Amino acid sequence: MDFLVNIREAVGSAIKTLYDIDLSSDQIVLNETRKEFSGDYTYVVFPLVKQLKKKPTDIGDEIGQWLIENRTQIAAYETVQGFLNLTLVDDFWFKSLIDIGHADHYGYSSPMHKKVLVEFASPNTNKPLHLGHIRNILLGWSCSKILKANGYEVVNTQIINDRGIAICKSMLAWKKFGNGATPESTCIKGDHFVGDYYVAFEKAFVAEYEDFQQRDEGEAVYHASGSTETKEAFFKKYKNQYFNEHSALGAEARQMLMLWEQGDAETLALWKQMNQWVYDGFDVTFDKLGVTFDSTYYESDTYLLGKKVIEMGLDRGVFYKKEDGSVWIDLEDVGMDQKLLLRSDGTSVYMTQDIGTAQQRFEDYGMDKMVYTVGDEQDYHFKVLFEIMKRLGESYAEGLYHLSYGMVELPEGRMKSREGTVVDADDIVAEVIEEARLLSAERGEIESLPKSEQDDILRKIGLAALKFFIVKVQPKKKMIFDPKESVDMQGQTGPYIQNAYVRIQSVKRKMAVGLNLDWNGYNTLNEYEKILVKHIMNFPDIVKEAGEQLDPSTIANYTYVVAKDYHRFYHEVRILNAESEAAKSFRVVLSDTIGYVLLHAFDMLGIEMPERM
After folding, report:
1. What is the pLDDT of residue 443?
2. Each residue of 544-555: pLDDT tens digit?
3. Which of 150, 325, 357, 479 has the fewest CB atoms within 10 Å, i.e. is most exposed?
């Protein structure tokens, strides 16, 4: 819905009539006039100066005067240097609001008949979901909803890292220390239960390593190394090598991994049982966050994928083989390095697996685009992957996109899984809901409602606080999550925006008559009303921009501006006790339309709106 097409055409007609220059409507850009100047939209005349050899102010005045004399949509103009600021008649805003009210699914695009696969979450089965996963999940989920709003068919998927030495550490710790315990017998959520054993392994390993350093064997290793570092500094760096060469626990974990790879029945049974405990726990957390997946891939199934693709690439000269039998690709011509794809013993690396998984997904879904929601520490990996897929000539290669995001921390600092200092996702969700409960108790506005309704409202407020605080930050930026700050009713927070929506619902409930579009007799907008109509008109463009950039913060920050201006309108302008029935009808319809925009914008961010709070 292009509200400004007639205005652009009018400017084009003025330029054609005055200067015999043909400009299409698409070539004429109108921007919102800056707040310090009068006007609604600004046309920049500088590009005409060189061609016309006139002062920019003269060109602006000539175009502005022609518009005043020949087009009824223009109420006034002002030329500031090379900027022609146009003020539109009030009827333009009224008509725009009517058109919006008559539109179906306003802000949403028609189906594009293109399919996008969005990968997000992708956790490991050796630990519960944590705060870092929350940012990943919320970014991926909101992007998938924004893409749907932009007309794409979207498939949500994840790949679970369910194999490897880290999983074996949890399994080994359970065998050593678990005494047959289960999530049910201990009343511990499945993913937390398994994560506790991952931490238990690390604690046992650290104790073993510290003992090794004090024994003669440790002394011998230190002196044999010829290191000039202190003993403490040397052993801080030697930890991984110790795990692989000297650790009894490390040897047991590697033996368990070998048994898994050999298909040992007892090892596979334990692996399946412990992974299922984790999957059950993940599902509870996903449900709390309100996210779903259309498909799930497992690394235990995909880690062998890609070998056939490598063989095909060798035949076509895309890859090359070294004397030791390892397979590589040379990407130095595009500023990257030479990348290993198969080891000399024929085993895969992660890149091999990702190549095969991309192929498998294309076979499964035939997608046009694929979005990987993965932290920025993997930027180079995906740059290489995408280049490889292009060189393989894959039809979807140009549609591969890495939704890269920065680390999320708490005010206390970074988190570490092995040390058990990670903040679990479930704990974060519980904390923001509790913060919402404390805030609600201070306000006392929902205490008369049934407890079940109160709990549902507090859940929506708490999750809005969490989700909005995460997605309002541009993905590539690092961020600090503060639970208390996230529920602030006066800040740039989810609850602040929810409060604007709740106010609108209250206005509608108090309206004596039903909503209608009959505001005949109300002909002049005040500045607060005009600002809100502009925000509403901008909604489709905001959704489109967020989809093109895959950046939910575009929508999040838009909703904050809309909510802030609605709160100001609510305080400064009489609504239900307006000066006339026509004014009341217009302001209620305007409020209702703002409510529509906030509701649907928040839905695109995966956030629910309460009716009361």
Report:
1. 81
2. 999 999 999 999
3. 325
pLDDT digits (tens, 9 = 90+) for 493-504: 999 999 999 999
- Asked if pLDDT for residue 318 goes beyond 90, the answer is yes
Query: Is residue 519 over pLDDT 90?
Result: no
Mean pLDDT, residues 105-118: 97
Three-state DSSP class for 159?
strand
Instruction: Provide the CATH number for the domain around residue 52.
Output: 3.30.1360.70
Distances (CA, A) of 470 to 289, 466, 483: 13, 6, 11
Q: Which residues pair with 159 in a beta bridge?
A: 297
Instruction: Look at residue 292 and tell me if it is in a domain.
Output: no
- Burial bucket for residue 185 (CB in 10 Å: 0-12, 13-18, 19+): exposed
Positive or negative, the CA dihedral 467, 472, 474, 479 is negative
Cross-strand partners of 327: 321, 342
End residue of a domain, out of 88, 103, 132: 88
Q: How many domains does the chain have?
A: 3
Closest alpha carbon to 597 in 546, 539, 526, 548: 539
Q: How does strand 479-480 pair with strand 408-409? A: parallel
Cα–Cα distance measured from residue 605 to residue 613, given in angstroms and rounded to the nearest whole number? 20
CA–CA separation, 294 vs 412, rounded Å? 36
Domain that holds residue 339: 307-347
Sort 254 into a burial class: Cβ within 10 Å, 0-12 / 13-18 / 19+: middle
pTM above 0.90, yes or no: yes
Q: State how far the Cα of 585 lies from the Cα of 507, in Å rounded to an integer.
A: 11
